[in-house]
Amino acid sequence: MEDADPVETLFDNALQIEVSDDESELTNDSTDHTKYPIVTKIISGKILNHNAIKSTLTKAWKIPSKTHVNTVSQNTLVFFLDSEDDRRRIWSQSPWSFRGNLVVTRPWYPEDALDEVDLAKTQIWVQVTGLTVVFTNKKIAEKIGKSIGKFIQINLTSENQRWRRALR
C-alpha cells in the first residue's frame, strides 16, 4: 500500500472545512480598537523608515500616537484607526506627502483581501496659475483636468473666484 500524496490529503481536508455566514459564530474581541483600517503607501524609489512614517503621519493626521500600525510591505503600512470619522477625514483630505513623496491612502475593509486594495492611483488637485480671467472657467478646467487624467471637480463656486491667481 502506497502512502497518500500529502498535497491530495491537504486538498481533501480543505474541502471538508465548513464556513457559516451566521454572525453568532464569529468571535469579536471587544478590546480590539482596530476597527477602521486605512492602507497607506508612500510612492518612493527608496525604502523609508516605517517609524518615521508612522510618527509623521500620526501628527499630520491628528490621530493618537498610540495608533496601531502594521507593515505590509516596502513603504506600505496599515493604520488601524479608532473612528470611521478619522478614516473618512484622512482619505478625503488626500493627497498627503511624506518627505516630498506622494502618500496614497485607501480605506480598507478587512472582509476584502488586502492585496486587492488599489494603491496604483489617487486623486490629486491641480492648481493652474497665469490664466487670464477669460480662461478661468469650468470648461477650461475640465479640458486641463482631462488632459492629465480624469476630471472630478473645479473649485470655482462664485464669479469672484475667477479673479483669483489660480484655477484649482
TrEMBL record:
Residues 34-111 form the DUF4283 domain. Transmembrane segments: none annotated. InterPro entries: At4g02000-like, DUF4283. This is DUF4283 domain-containing protein. It comes from Sesamum alatum. The lineage of its organism: Eukaryota, Viridiplantae, Streptophyta, Embryophyta, Tracheophyta.
